[in-house]
């Protein structure tokens, strides 16, 4: 079927195109009966506004760019679901890109977003991103930017993250309350903002309960497929009675290595992760983890960005939005569950 236009509606109803256009916008200038005729006819013929024409008229693309380190990561896919839901409801399309944890690829991807005339940018920084001056330059050119999950203290833009400090504190405190004292922490790369926040929460819990912080019990793992096992093997020399992994991906690696050594979980060593992936309760044993509010992070981040685009926030606050996490206790830390 041919796409119906405002001109087609105007011709059929013997009205001017400007009258039809104003009627579809519910203008006060058009009387109620004319509006009714126009709207009913448009609905009957499934009229939809031409997005290109609308963009030209509003001088906006109604597209927002979203850059994540990796779409295959369940957390980021859930964040994208939240972003898309809000964007769709507010009349925006979403273009999604991956940096694959590469600063160079992130930089090239942001350039693509700008070249495509996106109205704004949502970005979670790659693990290799240290210099954010290119984003600062875009901010100075008035491109609305909101960071999510991974932020930077060197960039004065809004950010939306989980409360990583509180989540890590709750995880570590739970292990301490279960009688654990030598808690190993397998962290994500130190360059990522959330790594520092989770490490700080871990250290604060130890301090609260009078347990000395031991650097020998902390290791940082990258995103390679075979990085966790040697780290766990090295940590086992320190005789830990628990592992707190800064992501469920790392926690599953810990679980696999501990099983290779026939170590009873939680009898000999307790294990806790961070994310609450969908299979966490299907593992053997089911894994205690900190649930990140991924969907809500996406929704809030998208809402803030669109508010900036539409001028609903006249001043840009750099105060971060931190969304509460939830500790989900299962058998990997508490026998009998």
From TrEMBL:
Provide the GO MF annotations for this entry: DNA-binding transcription factor activity; transcription cis-regulatory region binding
The answer to whether UniProt assigns keyword Transcription to this entry is: yes
Where does the record place the HTH lacI-type domain? Answer: 4-58
Name the CDD domains for this protein.
HTH_LacI, PBP1_LacI_sugar_binding-like
Query: Which SUPFAM superfamilies does the record match to this protein?
Result: lambda repressor-like DNA-binding domains, Periplasmic binding protein-like I
- Pfam families with a match to the protein in the record: LacI, Peripla_BP_1
Keywords carried by this UniProt record: DNA-binding, Transcription, Transcription regulation
**What is the protein name for this chain?**
LacI family transcriptional regulator
| Originating species | Larkinella rosea
């Amino acid at each position: 079927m041919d796409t119906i236009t405002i001109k087609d509606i105007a011709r059929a109803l013997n009205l001017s195109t400007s009258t039809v256009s104003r009627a579809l916008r519910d203008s006060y200038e058009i009387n109620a009966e004319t509006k009714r005729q126009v709207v009913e006819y448009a609905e009957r013929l499934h009229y939809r506004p031409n997005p290109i024409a609308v963009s030209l008229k509003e001088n906006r693309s109604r597209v927002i760019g979203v850059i994540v380190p990796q779409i295959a990561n369940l957390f980021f896919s859930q964040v994208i679901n939240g972003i898309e839901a809000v964007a769709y409801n507010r009349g925006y399309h979403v273009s999604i890109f991956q940096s694959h944890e590469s600063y160079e690829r992130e930089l090239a991807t942001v350039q693509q977003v700008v070249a495509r005339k996106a109205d704004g940018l949502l970005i979670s920084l790659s693990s290799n991103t240290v210099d954010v001056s290119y984003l600062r330059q875009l901010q100075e050119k008035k491109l609305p930017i909101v960071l999510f999950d991974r932020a930077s203290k060197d960039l004065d833009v809004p950010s939306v993250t989980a409360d990583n400090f509180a989540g890590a504190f709750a995880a570590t405190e739970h292990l301490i309350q279960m009688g654990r004292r030598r808690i190993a922490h397998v962290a994500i790369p130190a360059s990522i903002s959330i790594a520092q926040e989770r490490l700080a929460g871990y250290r604060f819990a130890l301090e609260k309960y009078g347990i000395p912080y031991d650097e020998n019990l902390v290791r940082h793992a990258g995103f390679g497929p075979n990085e966790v096992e040697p780290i766990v093997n090295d940590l086992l020399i320190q005789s830990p009675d628990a592992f707190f992994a800064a992501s469920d991906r790392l926690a599953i690696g810990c679980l696999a290595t501990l099983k290779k050594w026939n170590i009873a979980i939680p009898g000999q060593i307790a294990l806790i992760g961070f994310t609450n992936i969908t299979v966490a309760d299907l593992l053997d044993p089911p894994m205690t983890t900190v649930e990140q509010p991924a969907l809500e992070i996406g929704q809030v981040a998208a809402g803030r960005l669109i508010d900036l685009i539409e001028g609903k926030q006249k001043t840009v606050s750099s105060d971060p939005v931190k969304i509460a996490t939830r500790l989900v206790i299962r058998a990997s830390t508490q026998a009998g569950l």
